[in-house]
């Protein structure tokens, strides 16, 4: 039985596949041998190349180190160059270009910080020493420049400049520089006082320019750099000594002087009163102008350094404040007397007026002593004024004077007390006491005036009265002998006229020497007397004059016409002397 053809074909293919596999295995073995040979060669090559690779890596590391070193050297060289440039600027000093000088100091400070943080550098210690020495010299020159600028422009303010800064109503009159005359208290109406108070409240004060504004930023930078360099105490000392001296000189030029309690006690009252008036004026100028301006420049120069700002201002103003307040204290502690009450009140009033400004200008803990001193002075002035008024009240109560006043005017003590009290008022009484009180006392005055008419003129008016007189005793009835229908005798009429003349002349002589200070009351008294006396006299002369005219020496009895009497009444209460009356 034969093999099928398909199987034969399959056998042939299997034989071919076997042969192909055997060839592939042979080739694979050959390739493995070849690759093994390559691996051996590569290992040998790697071994041969390793020293070269090491050298190459070392060279690369060396290049990197060189680059780093060069970069570091560049930074250091830049710092050296900056130091050299800064040194050149510092050696030239701050006069030419202060801004550039301050920049050089900042550069030096940065250099010091750089070399301090890079002490591994070979010459860092030497460079640091040089930079620090240079920085110290720079700061010293800054101190000198700060002192020089401050001293050059810290001049005392002349009085005329200060007066120009005041409101026009408070400027001294020509010929009396520095004196305001507020020590003399003058009476004024309530409306005038209110208007004056309002005008002072709204008055505009213009503090003077103590240092040119363009210099303040430079002084601020100088102060700041000096303080940052650890020279705070030196900076404060320079500033306080310079500004304190200028401020004190300004006040002395104005007229302020330091007076003790003993100095005040020795002064005549007129001199002391004038000095008190000036002191009130000086206080306004000091607080509203000088201290306000001083505070402004202190705040600008020490801007951003609040602790030093308040401390410096307190130290600058301390002596000047003491000089002003010591006078007020001396007055408050001096021996009390009635005339001092008014100036004490004036002094208290100016302290009250300046209270809010003192609290504002002298703010901060460092200025607390000044604020306390101002408060204590106000309190002492008020207390002394109160005690002085109490002394005055007690003295009036104890006054035992009973001597009558010869000129009939108000008793000097009464007048003194009234004027004293009146000057204390914001100088109308009715506004304080009320209309009822005024009307009640006006009625009392009128009652006294009526009493005066009754007491002084009742008797003389009786001389002009003929009521109850009989017609006997030589009367001339009818009109045949110049008599009149009343039947009164000529002798009686003569006696009446003689009595009238004697009494009137006596009253005229005495009451012309009397004084009624109030013009309205003086005129009303004259009119009251004239309204009663003149009609009675005219009626008497008209009725009985013909009886006298027909007799002997009529002018001996009818000495005055009604017009003469009216003129003479006009001389009453003028306080004329006897010689003036005779003339």
What does this structure look like?
- This protein has helices at 5-92, 98-117, 124-153, 159-164, 190-202, 216-228, 232-254, 261-266, 269-301, 306-333, 340-361, 368-398, 412-424, 429-433, 435-463, 490-511, 519-549, 562-569, 578-582.
- 73% of the residues lie in helices and 0% in strands.
- It is mainly alpha-helical.
- Mean pLDDT is 81; it is low at 174-194 and 468-485.
Write a compact overview of the structure shown.
This protein has helices spanning 5-92, 98-117, 124-153, 159-164, 190-202, 216-228, 232-254, 261-266, 269-301, 306-333, 340-361, 368-398, 412-424, 429-433, 435-463, 490-511, 519-549, 562-569, 578-582. By secondary structure, the chain is an all-alpha fold.
Give the arrangement of secondary structure elements.
Layout: H1 5-92, H2 98-117, H3 124-153, H4 159-164, H5 190-202, H6 216-228, H7 232-254, H8 261-266, H9 269-301, H10 306-333, H11 340-361, H12 368-398, H13 412-424, H14 429-433, H15 435-463, H16 490-511, H17 519-549, H18 562-569, H19 578-582
């Amino acid at each position: 039985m034969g093999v099928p053809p398909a199987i034969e074909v399959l056998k042939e293919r299997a034989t071919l596949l076997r042969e192909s596999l055997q060839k592939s295995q042979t080739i694979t073995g050959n390739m493995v041998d070849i690759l093994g040979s390559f691996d051996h060669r590569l290992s040998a090559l790697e071994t041969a190349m390793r020293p070269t690779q090491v050298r190459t890596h070392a060279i690369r590391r060396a290049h990197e180190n060189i680059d780093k070193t060069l970069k570091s050297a560049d930074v250091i060289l830049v710092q050296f160059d900056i130091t050299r440039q800064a040194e050149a600027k510092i050696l030239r000093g701050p006069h030419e270009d202060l801004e550039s000088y301050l920049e050089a100091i900042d550069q030096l400070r940065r250099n010091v910080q750089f070399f301090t943080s890079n002490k591994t550098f070979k010459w860092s210690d030497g460079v640091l020493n040089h930079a620090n020495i240079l920085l110290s010299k720079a700061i010293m020159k800054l101190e000198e420049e700060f002192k020089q600028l401050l001293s050059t422009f810290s001049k005392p303010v002349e009085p005329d400049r200060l007066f120009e800064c005041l409101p026009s109503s408070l400027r001294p009159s020509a010929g009396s520089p520095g004196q305001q005359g507020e020590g003399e208290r003058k009476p004024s109406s309530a409306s005038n006082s209110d208007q004056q108070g309002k005008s002072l409240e709204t008055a505009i004060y213009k503090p003077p320019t103590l240092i040119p504004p363009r210099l303040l930023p430079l002084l601020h930078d100088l102060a700041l750099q000096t303080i940052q360099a650890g020279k705070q105490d030196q900076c404060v000392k320079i500033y306080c000594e310079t500004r304190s001296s200028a401020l004190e000189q300004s006040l002395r030029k104005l007229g302020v002087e330091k007076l003790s309690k003993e100095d005040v006690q020795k002064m005549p009252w007129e001199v002391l009163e004038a000095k008190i008036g000036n002191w009130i004026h000086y206080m306004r100028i000091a607080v509203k102008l000088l201290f306000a301006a001083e505070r402004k420049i202190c705040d600008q120069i020490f801007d951003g350094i609040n602790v030093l700002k308040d401390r410096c201002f307190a130290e600058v103003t301390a002596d000047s404040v003491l000089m002003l307040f010591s006078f007020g204290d001396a007055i408050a502690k001096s021996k009390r007397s009635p005339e001092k009450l008014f100036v004490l009140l004036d002094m208290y009033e100016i302290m009250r007026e300046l209270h809010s400004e003192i609290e504002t200008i002298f703010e901060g803990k460092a200025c607390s002593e000044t604020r306390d001193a101002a408060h204590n002075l106000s309190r002492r002035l008020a207390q002394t004024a109160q005690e002085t008024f109490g002394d005055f009240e007690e003295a009036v109560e104890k006054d035992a004077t009973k001597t009558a006043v010869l000129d009939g005017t108000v008793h000097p003590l009464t007048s003194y007390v009234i004027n004293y009290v009146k000057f204390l008022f914001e100088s109308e009484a009715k506004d304080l006491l009320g209309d009822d009180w005024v009307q009640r006392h006006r009625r009392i005055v009128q009652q006294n005036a009526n009493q005066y008419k009754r007491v002084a003129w009742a008797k003389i008016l009786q001389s002009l009265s003929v009521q109850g007189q009989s017609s006997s005793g030589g009367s001339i009835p009818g009109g045949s002998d110049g008599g009149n229908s009343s039947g009164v005798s000529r002798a009686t009429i003569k006696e009446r006229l003689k009595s009238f003349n004697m009494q009137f002349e006596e009253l005229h002589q005495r009451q012309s020497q009397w004084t009624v200070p109030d013009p309205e009351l003086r005129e009303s008294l004259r009119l009251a007397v004239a309204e009663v006396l003149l009609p009675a006299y005219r009626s008497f002369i008209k009725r009985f004059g013909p009886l006298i005219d027909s007799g002997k020496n009529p002018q001996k009895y009818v000495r005055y016409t009604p017009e003469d009497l009216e003129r003479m009444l006009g001389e009453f209460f003028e306080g004329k002397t006897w010689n003036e009356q005779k003339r």
